[in-house]
Amino acid sequence: MASNKEDNMESVQFFEGVEKLLEIWFISSDGDNKKHDLRNIPRHRWESLLKMVRCEIISFCRNDDIDAYVLSESSMFVAKRRLILKTCGTTTPLQCLETLLDLVEEYTGFDQVEDLFYSRKNYKRPELQIAPHRGFEDEIALLNSIFPDGEAYCLGDVDKDCWYLYTLNRTKSPQAPREPDQTLEILMTNLDARVMSIFTRDICTSAAEATQKSGIDKLIPGMMIDDFLFEPCGYSMNGVAKDGSYMTIHITPEPEFSYVSFESNIPESSYTEVIGRVLKTFKPGNFVITIFANKESIAAGTPRELKHASYLNFNGEWLRNDVQYCRFKNYDLICAFYSKFPS
To answer: Which residues fall within 8 angstroms of residue 127, CB to CB, at 6 or more apart?
Structure first.
């Protein structure tokens, strides 16, 4: 993405593509979750909240199940009781957390957080971030001040390539809704320069052209796409489907710090084909895969499947450098790090 750039990296203005991803599920202590809905929060209140995060809404689409916002720095998704806020650059999503909880209770009646996930990859330039986001320890401290039962994890190599996670890991109450949930995220770096050139105004004059020329429109068929091409470069898209699933992609194309993120909650018993299409589209040099799935999901076995060496091998094209499997109270998680196999 191309806005909110704050520093020079040699002759190129640096932008941190790595996102901070906050996902929160809400429930109500009255036990009647059907009458509550996060989409009752007015747009002007979302706009005020996002000012605290240092970003703004630039596009919007919706269907019967989900409201999807393209932001100046990534995306926000609002469903009945789930909020996803994904922001890049030097945004500060955790600074809005207490205000968000008050806002949700005021307009929706949800008064309890059922699940919370905060995650991000390691930054390329952490010194440019704004507190509390310069270090994971500071982010943990802020989250712990609101959620005293949270747990924090660092997966991968903390000195080289890693992925941070903070979650509540609470046992669901018997009255809590039981619904399938899964999330696939692919975080890519060192991307193919020819592919990245598509997401510049030198090559494409519109977001629709970049979406079609890159093949993004074919990654997950059936998505209603809302896309945006930044000036002079950078790209964001949200996709929503009739079954309530979503897809979102964010691209920082500059070769000095290229970065692409792909995320979707489409239900699949195996994500091999989806992952393969994403890698073929963007041709990264390195990438991280994370997959969350709860017990009700069709993808419940996928995290265990990814542990096997044969998974995502692609005829020796990729080298899996590390893989870690976590079993939480309500979810299974796999986090795997890959690099292009030496030619």
So the answer is: 134
What residue type is 116 in one-letter code?
Answer: L
CA distance 212 to 38: 33
Residues, the chain:
343
Catalytic position from the list 28, 72, 74, 214: 74
Q: How far is CA 39 from CA 63, 69, 111, in A?
A: 11, 12, 15
> Of the given ranges (37-51, 69-83, 293-307, 324-338), which has the lowest mean pLDDT?
293-307
Task: Specify the DSSP class assigned to residue 129.
Answer: S
Catalytic-role residue among 88, 204, 233, 335:
88
For residue 25, give the 3-state DSSP assignment: strand
Q: Which are the contacts of 182, defined by CB distance < 8 A and separation ≥ 6?
A: 265, 266, 267, 268, 291, 292, 293, 294, 297, 298, 299, 302
Q: Report the DSSP beta bridge partners of residue 189.
A: 259, 286
Residue 36 annotated among the catalytic residues of the structure: no
What whole-number distance in Å separates Cα of residue 112 and Cα of residue 26?
A: 6
Are the C-beta atoms of residues 259 and 189 closer than 8 Å to each other?
yes
List the catalytic residue out of 16, 73, 263, 268. Answer: 16
> Is 16 one of the catalytic residues?
yes
Q: What is the pLDDT of residues 240-263, one digit of tens each?
A: 999 999 999 999 999 999 999 999
- The C-alpha angle 166, 148, 105, rounded to 5 degrees, equals 90
User: Tens digit of pLDDT for each residue in 264-282?
Assistant: 999 999 898 999 999 999 9
Q: Which residues pair with 322 in a beta bridge?
A: 337
Active site residue 88: yes
Residue 232 preceded by cis peptide, ω within 30: yes
